[in-house]
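Re: the request from the purification team.
They wanted to know what the chain is likely to look like in 3D before they choose a buffer screen. I agreed to run a prediction and write the result into the notebook, where they can find it.
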Amino acid sequence: MLPIMLNVVKLPVAVIGNGFAAAQRLGILRASGAGNVTTFATDPEPDVVERAGDNLNRRLPLEADFQNTRYSLVYVCDIDESDSLMVVDWAHAVGAFVNVHDRQDLCDFHMPAILRRGNLQVTVSTDGKVAGLSRILRDFLGETTLGPEWEARVTELGAKRADWVSKGLCFDELRSRVNDYVSMKKWL
């Protein structure tokens, strides 16, 4: 697996599912700034309805939905096997990356456990092998090492770095100043 950070602000994303897994992905997408998310759910739980808002279609997607919108990311959660396989085929036909909940063999990508502190994001992954362990490690880091104070720290150091960049400092000097600042502040 290749860990990357993907800007989902404008990407067309589809979430297909009725329950907890779909609601969880909708929450993650919202927290990531996704602005073009369509949800398909035949019998959505209240959390899915609330998180999907006006972008909820109370049906399964059709092949035409993929051809018309050309989704970039597709999340498939808690729908039956034959529908999941059909959706995966339609998504791949338009070049979308697909994640099928608890079906590692059908996934193009996996969802890491995400710890957010403002602009700081730390992710933990087991490449889809043990999602529960990823969550345990994320929570441990959040409780022991990366508390809420890191949101302000990132903002503070980000402003410093932007100033240094505006002065034309080279990469090695930027790296050195960031290291020195963290050390001076005794953040670690």
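For the purification team: Strands lie at 13-16, 37-40, 56-57, 73-76, 97-100, 113-117, 120-124.
Please add any questions underneath this entry.
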